[in-house]
Structure formats: structure tokens, C-alpha cells
Design brief:
single chain, two-stranded parallel ribbon, 7% strand, rod-shaped
């Protein structure tokens, strides 16, 4: 605030008004002194004094207005100086932020380069995988062809005993896995230690047959007749007994289609098919 006061004191207009005011005061004092010595008509002098008083009042008001304006200018200057100080103080922070942004931009560019390299590596891997998929597809096709050939070979080697009739009183040690024995007729026969695993024996007639130690896993017995049949120590795991006739069947230590043992099911598998 010292600078603004120096500015007011050195203002030439301000000094001029101060001198004018002093001169008017001197004139008023001289006029008052003369008024005591002169007895003539002083109306003109009074008018001049009144005019001088008015001028003095106006000058005083003008000085006050100028002082107010100067005060406002001083306040404005102080505000500008404060703004300048704030801006100067913010410059280091802005420079720091600028440097941080430049560093971040540099890191981002490096990350972008690394991402591009990774993408190129992934493209190479994908291309290699496509090649491998093509090779695998060829291998799969070959395997499918081989399986079809094996199936055809197995089909040609499968025993076909459709509608066959067995009149022997006893059959022992038969191996008829995956055989086609649909609608066979086997009456009053004892079958021992034989394996019919996976065979299709749909619609067969097994009335009065006794099965001993038989492997009948996943055999299709659909719509077959098992009336008066005896199962002993046999395995029917996964067998299909849909629509079969099971009148007076005897179950002894036999594994039912659901994997349970007939002895644990009240000596029956009729509820565990």
C-alpha cells in the first residue's frame, strides 16, 4: 500500500487543488480584514466572497471524489497484484502437471507398442492353431473312417441267431457278445456260465429256462417272455426289460438292471428294472 500513497502525494492535479484552496483561504482572510476598515458598500465584495466559498466547496467535493476514485484504483491494483501472485504460484503446479502428462503420454505410447507386439504374437498363434485344426480335422476324418470300417467288420462278424430254436436241455460256456438273437426260442433249458453282453434278444421266449452264473449286461430283452424263469448268480446290470413278462420268476443272488442285488430287494428285481 506504500506505492499508492506515494502516487497520491505526487499527483500534480492534487497539489494544484491544494494550492488553490490555500489561496482562497488567504483571500477570504484579507477580505474580512478589509471589511473592518472600509465602511463603503461591500455588496460586490460579498458576492465575490460567496462565489469563492461556492468554488471552495466544489473544489473540496472534487478532491473527495478524486480521493475516492484513487482508493478504488488502489483496491483494484491490490486485487490485480493478488491475482498475479496467485498465477505466479500456480505456474510451478501447472508445469508439474504438464510434465506428468508428458510422462503419461510416453508410458501410453510404450504400452501401445507392447500391445501391438502382443497382438502380432496372438495372430501368429491363431494362424498356427488354424493349421493344427486343419490337421486335426483330417485326423478326425480318418478316425471316423476307421471306426466305420471297424463297425462294419464287427457287424459282419456278429453272430446272427434270429428266430433260432434251442432244444438242448443244457447250454454251457456260450460267448455270444453283441449277438443278434431276436425272437429266439429256448424252452426248458439250463444255461450255464455264458456271456450275452450287449446282445439284442428282443421278443425272445425263455419260458422255464434256468440261468446260472450268466453275464447279461446291457442285453436288450425288450418284450421277451421270462415266465417261470430262474436267475441264479447272474448279472443283469443295465439290461432292458421293457415290456417283458415276469410271471413266477425266481431271483437268487442276481444283480438287477439298476445295479442292486435281488437278495436285498426281497428276492426280486421286478421293482428294480
Amino acid at each position: 500500500m506504500a506505492a499508492p500513497r506515494t502516487f497520491i502525494q505526487n499527483d500534480p492535479h492534487h497539489k494544484g487543488m491544494q494550492k488553490t484552496r490555500s489561496a482562497l483561504l488567504v483571500i477570504l482572510m484579507m477580505t474580512a480584514a478589509l471589511a473592518g476598515c472600509i465602511s463603503e458598500d461591500t455588496s460586490d465584495l460579498d458576492t465575490q466572497i460567496e462565489d469563492l466559498g461556492t468554488q471552495n466547496t466544489e473544489l473540496t467535493q472534487t478532491i473527495a471524489e478524486r480521493d475516492l476514485a484513487i482508493s478504488e484504483l488502489e483496491a483494484t491494483i491490490a486485487g490485480l497484484e493478488s491475482n498475479v501472485a496467485g498465477l505466479e504460484a500456480s505456474i510451478p503446479l501447472m508445469e508439474e502437471q504438464r510434465d506428468a502428462l508428458l510422462a503419461l503420454l510416453s508410458d501410453s505410447q510404450e504400452f501401445a507398442n507392447q500391445t501391438l507386439e502382443l497382438a502380432e504374437a496372438m495372430n501368429e498363434t491363431i494362424a498356427a492353431l488354424h493349421v493344427m485344426l486343419g490337421e486335426n480335422a483330417t485326423q478326425v476324418l480318418q478316425l471316423q473312417t476307421d471306426v466305420l470300417e471297424w463297425q462294419q467288420t464287427a457287424e459282419s462278424n456278429r453272430a446272427v441267431l434270429r428266430n433260432a430254436r434251442f432244444d438242448s436241455p443244457s447250454l454251457d460256456g456260450l460267448s455270444l457278445r453283441n449277438a443278434d438273437m431276436q425272437h429266439i426260442h429256448l424252452f426248458y433249458t439250463d444255461v450255464w456260465f455264458s456271456d450275452f453282453t450287449g446282445s439284442n434278444i428282443r421278443g425272445a421266449d425263455f419260458r422255464h429256462v434256468q440261468f446260472y452264473d450268466m453275464t447279461l449286461i446291457e442285453v436288450n430283452f425288450e418284450f421277451s417272455n421270462f415266465d417261470d424263469v430262474i436267475f441264479r448268480h447272474s448279472d443283469l446290470t443295465g439290461a432292458n426289460l421293457t415290456g417283458v413278462s415276469l410271471i413266477d420268476v425266481t431271483w437268487h443272488d442276481t444283480i438287477c438292471p439298476d445295479g442292486t442285488n435281488s437278495d436285498n430287494n426281497g428276492n426280486t428285481c421286478e421293482n428294480n428294472l
